[in-house]
Design brief:
- By secondary structure, the protein is mostly helical.
- The longest helix is centred in the N-terminal third of the chain and has 39 residues.
Length: 195
């Protein structure tokens, strides 16, 4: 019996886990690597679980669909077709909006709009392909130079070095030919209310 007691004590000592003092000290880099490895393995487990959940959800949906009556199947089919039709209808409007937004500051080349086929930019799921619209616009348009706005300031007329005539008193000292000449030059624009 003493032999069995010694064997049990020996086995117990062998199975006791090593304490911190028995384990070799790990450097900080090794600890960080161990931590990274731990999180990687947890991430892989979560990813596998997510894939399994997706597969199970698909299988459950297939089982649910197989148990539907003919009327329920017809309702589901009609609902799916209606949803698709609505998405396609609004997708054309989205293509128009995307085209307008992409054309901001650009001018289409002549006849390019006649070649524009909205349905070619609608994906099978009813969404639109914004990148394809943008590349089409870049291929069929050019940037426009926006002129500076006329704020009505500064000299006007053909000869900007001459001043505007602003009052009728200034006209009293001018001959009719000088008045016509000033009008042609645009110097009467202020007095005539054109500015």
């Amino acid at each position: 019996m003493a032999d069995t007691t010694d064997q049990i004590e020996t086995l117990a000592e062998d199975s006791v886990p090593a304490t911190e003092s028995d384990a070799p000290e790990l450097s900080e880099m090794e600890q960080l690597k161990a931590e990274v490895d731990k999180w990687k393995s947890l991430s892989r487990k979560n990813e596998q679980q997510a894939k399994a959940n997706i597969a199970a959800a698909k299988e459950l949906e297939e089982i649910r669909k197989s148990q539907l009556t003919d009327t329920e199947k017809l309702v589901e089919q009609t609902r799916a077709e209606t949803t698709q039709a609505i998405r396609r209808e609004y997708a054309t409007k989205l293509v128009d909006a995307e085209l307008k937004a992409t054309l901001n500051g650009r001018i289409l080349e002549g006849g390019a709009l006649l070649e524009f086929d909205k349905s070619s930019f609608i994906l099978d799921d009813g969404n639109i392909d914004s990148e394809a619209i943008q590349s089409w616009v870049e291929a069929h348009s050019k940037t426009m130079d926006i002129p500076a706005p006329n704020l009505g300031q500064g000299a006007r007329g053909v000869n900007p070095s001459k001043a505007q005539i602003r009052t009728r008193d200034e006209l009293k000292n001018m001959s009719p030919t000088e008045i016509l000449e000033a009008r042609k030059e645009g110097r009467l624009d202020s007095l005539m209310g054109k500015l």
